[in-house]
Amino acid sequence: MTPQRNFVQAVAKAITFNLIFLVGFLASCNGDNPSSGDSGSALNAGREYMMWWNASAYDQIWKQATSQFKTTFGSLQNFQAASEQAKEEYGAQTTLKGERVFDMGSIFQYESVAKYANKSDLASFEWQLDSSNDILSLYVRDLPQEAPSAYLDYQTKTKLRLPFDDEWTVMWGGRSTWENYHADTPNQRFAYDFFVVKNGYFSGDGSQNAQHYAFGKTVVAPGSGVVIAAESSVPDNVPGEENFAQPLGNHVIIDHENGEYSVLAHFQRGSVVVQVGDRVVAGQKLGLCGNSGGSDLPHLHYHIQNTPFPLVNGVVDGEGLPTQFTNYFADGTRISRGEPVRGQRVHP
């Protein structure tokens, strides 16, 4: 379940620059690169880089680029060509709507959201910076309108806990498409993607699932109910690849018997330990986090909807419901009932 937006589509044959769950930096975001920067300096650096980009000062950007960034583009000329193509597509920036820095554990991501002359929707330009504020990557993400929902004021009936016991990071979560790329899809309107971060997302070069900290982590039932779907035979993907034919991958769906259905996706192959018809309680083990289905990096996808199955004959079905978890910590603060948002580190 990945946002598909490629900053360099015009030169895709010459440059591979995929947007992968905001972590398209597989060679650099790892446990051997502890962060020594801070959000304030990353904010200032990001503003400067955005200003340079708008002013076509590509040589200045290139001087601040890491070897990874340079390898991605191959040359300053390629980067300039990709940038000019993006400017032709988007047009001039007309209104800055917002900016922020997202602390990803070992690096920072500066994001600038603005209106552009040639686009009806907003767009987010996102600069990934290392601990020295040098540039790891740059990409753009369109921000479509959120899917309409009749459930914006809905209060979750099921008493929910987080679907894990350790600390995880909310990579995608919240009610806007800036916080949550799922939000433009009706049945995933309030969905979550959770990752495990320990000064990065993985050890080594991240090319193997076992190197990712989320892979193999225990996933538990967020609430009590009856299992109505359980799949465990889908192979795990190689990091960077996806299985669009089986978007849920290995998954479990729980009927909470009150009109709410929990969907947990991308389990590790062979790890799901429940079967259809099993009655589960909150906190009961369901399986292990994997990288199956529409997933390009190990993570846990979770959402609640008002119909039993998210796909019926290949067509999206149902509407997503707001998901209020109870009694958890978010960035060290105890939350009695709430909806985690992107960037928060959460645990029971």
TrEMBL record:
PANTHER family for this protein: MUREIN HYDROLASE ACTIVATOR ENVC, PEPTIDASE-RELATED
The protein's name: Peptidase M23
Listed GO MF terms: metalloendopeptidase activity
Top-level lineage group: Bacteria
Residues covered by the M23ase beta-sheet core domain: 215-306
One Pfam family in the UniProt entry: Peptidase_M23
Gene3D superfamilies the UniProt entry points to: Glucose Permease (Domain IIA)
Organism annotation: Candidatus Moduliflexus flocculans
